[in-house]
Amino acid sequence: MTGYNKFNQDTNIIGIIGHPIKHSYSPLMHNISFEIKNLNYIYLPFDVPINTLKAAIKGMVALGIKGFNITLPHKENIIAYLRNVSEEASIIGAVNTVVNDNGILSGYNTDVNGVYETLLPYKDEITGQKVSIFGAGGGARSVIYTLIRNFKPEKIQIINRTEQKGESLREYFSTRMHFTDIKSYELIPPDLVDVLRDSKLIINTTSVGMYPNVDDSVTSIPQSFVKGQVVFDLIYNPLKTRLLQLAESQGATVIDGLRMLVHQGAKSFELWTGEEMPVEKINKALKLYIDTK
Ligand code: NAP
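# NAP complex -> structure
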């Protein structure tokens, strides 16, 4: 299916709603996947300001849009409009994927799949170990949920700029998931160096170091890292953040955010189409796109 005949009355429309929306890689990722799999689908971005969410959802249902992603600032507010919410989305308190089954909307959080698939190759090294997490936002919630469910950490240490937010997250997960070996800290060296050195897995879920602020890092102290550690940065632009460069210089294993991005997309793709996303091809295509941008 190519050219002007490609889209017709049978085309399934998928979207993403958020505000702002123009930096999302999801349209590229899903439209390439539809093309590769020869599926009659199209993925479109919709800029939906905060006070128009309800009208936008009514419109999506009226137009028969098959499903959509949700990004900031709607990930939490969308829940009020859904008939079903999956277990992980309900615990995390945020939905990033909706399936529209003839007007019945069901919500999921596929970031969990992204985190899980990213960490799976390191399962033997990281299971049952101490973890330090920078940040206490939406990304941190998906990470903490996935760690508790799948990697049984010995201890989770949340390090956040706003101490109160880190503390709220600590309280939330210890109550909601009955995981009590969880602590929160402010971002202050020199104690920070010891906390990090003592962690087998370090995860950055903040936006510190993201383009255009590529020289920033949640820590600039090389001694924070040791050989044998695994350091995962959720950021995918740039792929090698300053944090990962520092960690790599000390012999740590480093993981960028691209795999998480692709695997959260793959789970959404599967929920909408029932098909597997060609993840390795998409990984390559996005890497090329990011490297040449
Ligand atoms: P969010 O909910 O807004 O949380 C942002 C976090 O970053 C908060 O903890 C915030 O601390 C912290 N932060 C922001 N600016 C900071 C600064 N200058 N210094 C110290 N801390 C700072 O955002 P999010 O949705 O979790 O996303 C965070 C990052 O993860 C983004 O870069 C996003 O692209 C990435 N991400 C990637 C994927 C993927 O698929 N790879 C998925 C989700 C998110 P305060 O609490 O003090 O404000």
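# post-check
The domain at 113-256 is CATH 3.40.50.720 (Rossmann fold).
The chain has two domains: 3-109+261-291, 113-256.
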